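Hi, here's the filled form for the chain we discussed.

Project: internal
Contact: R.S.
Residues: 385
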Amino acid sequence: MDQRYDVIVAGSGPAGGTAAYFLGEAGKRVLILEKETLPRYKTCGGAISLNVLQQFPFSFEPVIQSRVDAVTYASGEKMVTVPLKDTSLCMVMRDEFDAYLARHAKADLREGMEVKKVEERADSVQVETADGQRFEADYLIAADGANSTVAHSLNLRRKKIMAGAVEIEAKVPEPILARYARKPMLIFGDIGVGYLWIFPKADHISVGVGGLSPKPQELQKALERVTTWLGISLLGQPRHGHPVPIYTGKERISTSRTLLTGDAAGLVDPFTGEGIRFAIKSGRLAAESVLKGQPKRYPALVDQQIGRNHRLGYSLIPIFYPRTRPMFDHFLQRPLISQKLIDMLDDRLSYARLLWSLLVSLPKLLMEKKIPLDQQAELTSPVDV
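And the returned structure, exactly as it came back:
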């Protein structure tokens, strides 16, 4: 055996970095095995609330690409930009964010080492990498993504459901970059279950589309159609496709010594596709379960703090997505809705509390003045790259 650790963390994304950070702070000897060399590109919209990041005792300011003070919704030919009172939402690039978090952890970070095989024994977990090295630990925390090698090795999450996404990190002229500065755009109604997004970064925009059970070429065609409508040329810019593991119900996400986190556990919100917040939350829950010597409690904690919320979110899909245009007309033009959504992204509201809050606020909501629609000519005038 090459080396012995208290905990091995497979993967250095938000879940793995979080787990390694809190384990290292508690004095555990931690090994992070990352198959790529950091920083490495990861397809992701990159939206995260600063309030979620406040659980870490250091600033993420060096990796914040932009802040958000408004959000634009679009459906059909209509658009509306809603200003936000709360500016906690920010945008990051995952290559920078993941490397920054991982390097704050008091851990032995081994890059370019892909987990190939996992063997769990009564008193330890043994991990073998693609280059033949072997490591042993009391526990293994798997944060190795949607197609987790650890999950496959231990026969976990055998019935996972995947959505799909396509994203482009688009270099655009300054007028278009300025158009979306500090105000991401969400576009509904162009695919069955899902949406398109334009997220502002420091020197470019992230343009993407994600959907549940898309038809062949549906995502690509929707992306081309919408960007043409908005006057954004994607000619010659690489497209990145990736699977999105959608949470639809309880699955087996742990053994007595191995705990799946983040995408490896399939913890992406099925309604919004949000993943970073739940990766961080599951990484911390895994670390705390190990530190307390209670790994068997981990699945129950995940279900209580994440799973119940996601099941309700999944049940909202057939209510919202077939009715995106009336939802736009009656709800998305109202500032209260956007503020409630920010509260949810801040991790202050679950879907259950969000729905209850909206029900209680319904009279006020219906009386609230709608934000006027944007002037389409200004927003959709073509500008070539």
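Let me know if anything looks off before we file it.
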